[in-house]
Amino acid sequence: MHATVLTLFPGLLEAYLSTSVMGRAVEGGLVEIDLVDLRDYGEGPHRQVDDRPFGGGPGMVLMAEPILRAVEDAREAHEEGARTLFLSPQGRAFDQALARELAAHGPGFVLVCGRYEGIDERALTVLEPEEISVGDFVLSGGEVAAMAVLDATARLVPGVLGHDQSAEEDSFSAEDGILDHPHYTRPAVVRGLEVPEVLRGGNHAAVARWRREQALARTRERRPDLLGGKDEGGGRRCPREP
Ligand code: SAH
What is the dihedral of CA 45, 50, 53, 54, to 10 degrees? Predict the structure, then answer.
């Protein structure tokens, strides 16, 4: 996986990308993530990257040219065919299916983080990026969203997680895309609450059956939309693959 992130605040991502699962993935060369400081593409002696909005109103807008030049350079640094994604609350919902697609996309992808009021619309008109949202809420910048995309994608790259199965059993990941089952660890009793007996019995088939039932039950309760029932609307967006 090869990703390039364009941001005004690369430091925000550095800590995340050097810690735990992401840190090991980068360190081990399983994923390559290049951070580009948009300020390096700023204009004039002050490396200006933002300006006041035409038409008035509060806040600042990221200028088109610095973004255009930064994305063009980033695309050059990727194999032909890299995808360009602009993080935006107005975009298509990011989900496990898209994470899988990105993890398997050899040429990789370029992530553009907006800030302030957003970016000059003409940058979007020229670049025609895929707009990706991490949820129906507004962040102050694309960096937290970029971290979500990078993390969800990198952990699907073979070898990034400790053993290959751990991603397969996660929510949205089993063949039928349902939620994960509950997990327990020691001690066997916490505040009077016992671990279900079946998990301690050593009967692997029974454990698998129990987990499957639990996963189905909680999916039915929390996300009936994932089960594809026609009568079960569910208010949330559906992360199922077609
Ligand atoms: N005025 C814009 C929001 C700007 S927020 C609007 O209302 O649509 C500043 C930047 O944060 C955005 O350009 C985007 O890159 C990022 N951002 C905010 N919310 C996001 C979300 N839900 N998903 C992805 N990126 C988001």
Answer: 50
Say if ligand 1 is within 6 A of residue 89 CB: yes
- State the catalytic residue, choosing from 89, 101, 131, 220: 89
Structural domains of the chain, ranges and CATH numbers in brackets: 2-154 (3.40.1280.10), 169-226 (1.10.1270.20)
Ligand 1 centroid to Cα of residue 75, in Å, is 22
DSSP H helical ranges for 155-190: 165-168
**Nearest C-alpha neighbor of 145 from the set 155, 166, 159, 131:** 131
Give the separation between CA 134 and CA 90, rounded to whole angstroms. 10
pLDDT for residue 13 is more than 50: yes
187 carries an active-site annotation: no
Question: What are the pLDDT digits (tens) for 154-179?
Answer: 999 999 998 756 788 899 998 889 99
Residue 54: C-alpha distances to residues 42, 64, 70, 89, 126 (Å): 19, 13, 23, 21, 19
Total residue count of the chain as it appears in this document: 242
CB atoms within 10 A of CB 205: 7
Is residue 238 a contact partner of residue 179, using CB atoms and an 8 Å limit? no
Q: Could you list the beta-strand ranges (E) of the chain.
A: 2-7, 32-37, 50-51, 61-62, 83-93, 109-112, 130-133, 189-190, 193-194
Catalytic annotation present for 58: no
Over residues 87-103, the mean pLDDT reads: 98
Reported pTM: 0.92
